[in-house]
Every structure is written in structure tokens, then in C-alpha cells.
Design a protein that fits this description.
Keywords: Aminotransferase, DNA-binding, Pyridoxal phosphate, Transferase. Its cofactor is pyridoxal 5'-phosphate. The protein contains twelve helices and 14 strands. It has helices at about 20-35, 35-40, 50-60, 70-85, 100-105, 125-130, 155-170, 225-235, 240-255, 255-280, 305-315, 345-360, and strands at about 5-10, 65-70, 90-95, 110-115, 120, 140, 170-175, 200-205, 215-220, 285-290, 295-300, 320, 320, 335-340.
Length: about 375
């Protein structure tokens, strides 16, 4: 079995067939043809000016509230460096993105994981933590199609988090790279768009809507916060990648971004449906909530040792990410399955192999 070509449910990235390479070639030509000086120069730490302006217009904020970075992980790191010192309390979802946990722990933060439900973080538990006297510097929230769970934060919970952030004076970090990738249901407004107290810093990325290799992300937040982060960015790299940002600017302004998002949405809906159908057929005892967008599904396999399953799955030519990787504790019966980079046929075969691996544990 190990000789089979492996099928990986591991990486949250789109496959090449749903990336608009033709549009990127044209955007690249336009970037160098229309602004060769700006595209090839160092630039400044706040990012490529035309793209910064476009992002500000999309969010309805002054351009001073926007900073464009080398991917959203860079944006996250800058924000944490600006706001979080060793010993500072930080609220995170449980489970949450593993790199977030790693970054915060490396900074010496006092991490407070709060259980994640199908409609988002347990806001009652957040409020109880605040009422107990904990004063976090920030709460990290992935509101749409959360990585790793695929869950979406409900409108009432968004409103409550905004109120708590205003009342207790912490930053609500809305980490939202999947916002545009909704293929079912009604789009919810961002917390940034509803913020009246300057509590929200918003991050997003073009990695999920243009292509991962473009490495362009951004932050939107209070002007004084963005100005502070700009100083960190200046000492870190003088300026981010102007070539990538100029290409993204042309891609967005040409209308190609909207077409790309439509393509990605259609493909991901099909892939999610294939995953659900295969799980229903092959692993009927599996527990999950099918996402309405994004790249990931959190799957619980009651009674299965995921550590043992990982070894068996490798023997059957399939890979996943262990649920425990996204938690400080727990998740020992859960996996994250990323369906974004696989065809429907590969997903079906991958789940068939995964089910065979599960059965082999009882053999």
C-alpha cells in the first residue's frame, strides 16, 4: 500500500487548476508596463501605494489604516510584536491555527484557549474569563470557515465580542483570510465594519483568492496601531515585496479577482460535497459539520487513536493533520482534512484509504 501515490489532506492551498494563471500573466505584464518604477523599487514599509488604496476603498477606511505585508502570517507576527509582551494574556479559539499558537507561545504570552462551537467561540466562557479578572491584550478570532474547524462565527456572537472588547479594552484581532470563499449561505459583515470603538484589527490575504505563492496579506486597524506596526516593518525589511503587490493590484483592478473567487468557490463547493459523500459512505460514525466555505473540515473519529491512525494512514497512502496539533491539550480523536488542493476523485479515493486505515487498527 505504501507504494501508492500519497493523497494529502494536509495543506490548505488551492490546486493549480483553479488558479487563474492566465490572469496573473496579464497582471504581471500590466504591473511592469504601467508602473515600472513603483513595481521595481524598494517602496516603503506600508506597502505598494495603489494596492493599499484599493484595500482601503474595499473596507471603507482611510488609507492610513491599512498596511500591506508579505502574507497574512507576517501581518499576524507584526501585530503580536506590537501588542503582546511576555506574560500578557491572549484569548484564542480551541482549536485554532497551529502557527498562531506557536507564535504566541514563542512570545511568552499567557494563552487562554476558549472552546470553539459550531457557531464560533464560546462567548459565555470569554465573558466569564474577563469577569474573573483576566485582562487580555487581544483575542485572536478566525470568524469565517475557521482553520482548522471550518466553523463560522455567528452574527450575535460577533456583536457580543465587539461589546466585550469595548468594555474591557482589549484588541479584537479578526483574522479573516477566508471571507470571500463562501460557497453556501449568507455572507456576514465583518466585525471591522461594525466596530465603533477602535477595538478591531483586521487581517486578510490574497493567498486564498489569487494564489498562495503571491504572498500578499494586509492589516486594517486604528491609524495609531498601523503606524506603530509600520515602524516594526521598516526595521524588519524596509519594504515588503513590491513586485507581488503591484501584480495583485493589477489583478484586483482588472476584475480578474472577482472571476478568480467565483472559480474557487465553485471548485471548493464540489470538493466539500465529495468529502461529505465519501465520509457518509466510508466512515458513517465520523462526526463533523460541513463548512459553508473555506478549505477545511474538522472530523472527529470517536474511539480512534489518531496517533495510531496516522501511522496506518501512511501505510495506506493518505495523510492528514492531527487535531492535537491545533490545541494546547485534547483533540486526540480528531483530524483536520483540507479538501482545497484535491480533485473530487482524489478526495473520494483518499477517504476510502482513510477508512481502510481505520479498519486496519481493529484487525
Amino acid at each position: 500500500m505504501a507504494s501508492q501515490a500519497a493523497i494529502g489532506f494536509t495543506r490548505g492551498a488551492p490546486s493549480l487548476d483553479i488558479i487563474d494563471t492566465e490572469g496573473l500573466v496579464e497582471a504581471t505584464r500590466l504591473a511592469f508596463a504601467e508602473d515600472p518604477a513603483g513595481t521595481t523599487a524598494y517602496g516603503t514599509a506600508v506597502g505598494y501605494a495603489p494596492l493599499r488604496k484599493w484595500i482601503a476603498e474595499q473596507h471603507g477606511v482611510p488609507v492610513e489604516q491599512v498596511l500591506v505585508t508579505n502574507g497574512s502570517m507576517q501581518a499576524d507576527a507584526f501585530l503580536f510584536e506590537q501588542l503582546v509582551s511576555p506574560g500578557d494574556a491572549v484569548i484564542v479559539e480551541a482549536p485554532t491555527y497551529d502557527r498562531t499558537l506557536l507564535n504566541l507561545r514563542q512570545r511568552g504570552a499567557e494563552v487562554h484557549p476558549i472552546a470553539l462551537h459550531e457557531d464560533g467561540i464560546d462567548v459565555d466562557a470569554v465573558q466569564a474569563l474577563l469577569e474573573s479578572g483576566v485582562r487580555p491584550k487581544l483575542a485572536h478570532i478566525i470568524p469565517n470557515f475557521q482553520n482548522p474547524a471550518g466553523y463560522t462565527l455567528s452574527a450575535p456572537k460577533r456583536a457580543r465580542l465587539l461589546a466585550l472588547a469595548s468594555q474591557y479594552g482589549f484588541t479584537l484581532f479578526e483574522d479573516d483570510p477566508y471571507f470571500s470563499i463562501r460557497f453556501e449561505g449568507e455572507q456576514l459583515p465583518t466585525m471591522l465594519s461594525q466596530d465603533t470603538s477602535g477595538s478591531v484589527v483586521y487581517a486578510s490575504s490574497f493567498s486564498k483568492t489569487v494564489c498562495p505563492g503571491i504572498r500578499v496579506g494586509y492589516l486594517v486597524g486604528p491609524a495609531e496601531v498601523i503606524a506603530g506596526i509600520a515602524k516594526i516593518a521598516t526595521t524588519t525589511y524596509i519594504s515588503p515585496n513590491m513586485v507581488s503587490q503591484s501584480i495583485v493590484n493589477q489583478f484586483c483592478r482588472s476584475g480578474r479577482l472577482d472571476k478568480s473567487i467565483d472559480t474557487v468557490r465553485a471548485a471548493l463547493r464540489q470538493r466539500k460535497d465529495a468529502l461529505v459523500a465519501a465520509l457518509e459512505r466510508e466512515l458513517p460514525k465520523a462526526e463533523y459539520t460541513a463548512p459553508q466555505g473555506g478549505y477545511f473540515m474538522w472530523v472527529r473519529l470517536p474511539g480512534v487513536s489518531i496517533d495510531a491512525l496516522a501511522d496506518a494512514a501512511a501505510e495506506h497512502g493518505v495523510a492528514f493533520v492531527k487535531g492535537a496539533d491545533f490545541l494546547l491539550e485534547g483533540g486526540d480523536d480528531s483530524v483536520r482534512l483540507a479538501y482545497s488542493g484535491l480533485s473530487a476523485e482524489e478526495i473520494d479515493e483518499g477517504v476510502t484509504r482513510l477508512a481502510a486505515a481505520v479498519r486496519s487498527l481493529d484487525a
